Prior knowledge:
There is one protein chain. By secondary structure, this protein is of the alpha+beta class. It is built from six helices and 23 strands. A six-stranded mixed β-sheet has the order 2-3-1-4-5-6, with helices on both faces. Strands 7-8-14-11-10-15 form a six-stranded antiparallel β-barrel. Strands 16-20-18-17-22-23 form a six-stranded antiparallel barrel. Helix 1 (20-30) crosses helix 2. The protein starts with 5 loop residues before the first strand and ends with a strand.
Amino acid sequence: MAKAKEHMNLAFIGHVDHGKSTLVGHLLLQSGVIAEQQLSKGEDKFRFVMDKLQEERERGVTIDLAHARFDTPKYEFTIVDCPGHRDFVKNMITGASQADAAVLVVAIDDGVMPQTKEHAFLARTLGINQLIVTINKMDLVNYSEEKFNALKEDVGNLIKTVAYKPDEIDFIPISAFEGDNITKPSENTPWYKGPSLVDSLNKLSPPEKPTNLPLRVPVQDVYSITGVGTVPVGRVETGVMKKGDNVIFEPPGASGEVKSIEMHHEMLESAEPGDNIGFNVRGVGKNDIRRGDVAGHTNNPPSVAKEFTAQIVVLQHPGVITVGYTPVFHCHTAQVACTFLELQKKMNPATGAVEEENPDFLKTGNAAIVKVKPTKPMVIEKIKEIPHMGRFAIRDMGQTVAAGMCIDLVPAK
């Protein structure tokens, strides 16, 4: 049996109408994921692929992932952010599909737009360290090398402001509509000597498994299994769990020895990041723990925050956010209402520069540093210490209103 390919999550970001949908559609087509017959004719043929996903989303059914998965010779990719979707960060922030890399799409006719900046800043805020830039719609400028170089410089200067290094990043001239430089070099750009998009994706580094960080296993569900007892189920985010380890669940503080670990109905001696496991802990009963609790080793337990300081980006809010606002924070598997205690700084979302100290309110598009207090104990970690446990989405009124990360915290004990 061939070794399974490494898996990576990929986000497509950039200004609306810069061709993300068309690019993803063409990429899936050229990778053989979708057949030509599935496409409608003419101008909008690739839109169809994404619109089908959009329609499924609006009906609230699970997206058929087959459409958003494709393989390169080296990796199996899942597109975590189907373009054009306003909620594009929710999944990425709540952790299940943290993107390992992003493709920034910039159209040659429009150049750098406000959303281009915001998405670049957001990618950084969300911890995406690997970026590929595609300069799209080259067919509109007759594949002009001069226009490509000018925009490459603009985008390079922009991403520098959020600490990406332009000289380490591929800038690829493409036409998502015509299919240039997506899977193979195009004769329309003989002056371009770099990789196609797929070649560039193949050069990405797989995410390192954070086995050296403290153990953190957010609980998704708790089962009672005859003959075994109480079995919490969750995904190991960081660290390693071994049989015989002493673990503690926070916030409740229940602890005991790991008696068994299983994955896909097989017993394991140990589990590492990315493993979805069920495990049984001596002395911990079904009523002691619940979804949203986090297991860690007793000598390095998960942090329970009494209050915490966060950097957030307001994605969409019909009104304004003021002190006292108490929406629900989704962090790993926990959902806890948190109250805004202080709005400390308002920042420019494109550069991170401080624009105002102690603003009265925040609105859509603002980035800010805020202090919040969970209405009940919750586990969250500082982004610098355990990045996988430091990000969250803020939801209210059925939508993701903001996204952010924990930069400091006051422990509850």
